[in-house]
């Protein structure tokens, strides 16, 4: 790719492309729907319970990390399916590793949520 220099127009176009990627993630990727549902639930619960700024930072990073990993995983899967529509053990391994990365982040995000929410829920009762 040829480097033609920095222009504001090109930077604004890159935001348009990135926004389209987010739209595709949210509208077409079924696993992202699950993550988005969980994010909405956690956000509502955090708002109701009254999380601190520090707790919100952890929650936002956890949600953002999971959604970003899901986007990367979906990209890898789409590219792998294009390159090798027939079964290929290396492609399967690559797709499994990418899906595993999402799972690791989702589990980590759930643990962050439990660390933040369990003490708050226990003090409500």
TrEMBL record:
Per the UniProt record, which residue ranges are transmembrane?
A: 32-50, 56-76, 97-118
Residue positions binding a divalent metal cation? 29, 77
Active site: residue positions: 70
Q: Which GO terms describe its biological process?
A: phospholipid biosynthetic process
UniProt keyword terms in alphabetical order: ATP-binding, Cell membrane, Kinase, Lipid biosynthesis, Lipid metabolism, Magnesium, Membrane, Metal-binding, Nucleotide-binding, Phospholipid biosynthesis, Phospholipid metabolism, Transferase, Transmembrane, Transmembrane helix
**InterPro entries, from UniProt?**
DAGK, DAGK_sf, UDPK
Q: How does the cofactor bind to this protein, according to its record?
A: Mn(2+), Zn(2+), Cd(2+) and Co(2+) support activity to lesser extents.
**GO terms for molecular function, please?**
ATP binding; kinase activity; metal ion binding
Domain of life, source organism? Bacteria
- The positions annotated for binding substrate are 70
**UniProt-listed CDD domains:** UDPK_IM_like
For activity, the cofactor(s) needed are: Mg(2+)
Question: What is any one of the record's Gene Ontology cellular component terms?
Answer: plasma membrane
* Family, similarity comment: Belongs to the bacterial diacylglycerol kinase family.
The protein's name in its UniProt record: Diacylglycerol kinase family protein
Report the source organism.
Phocaeicola plebeius
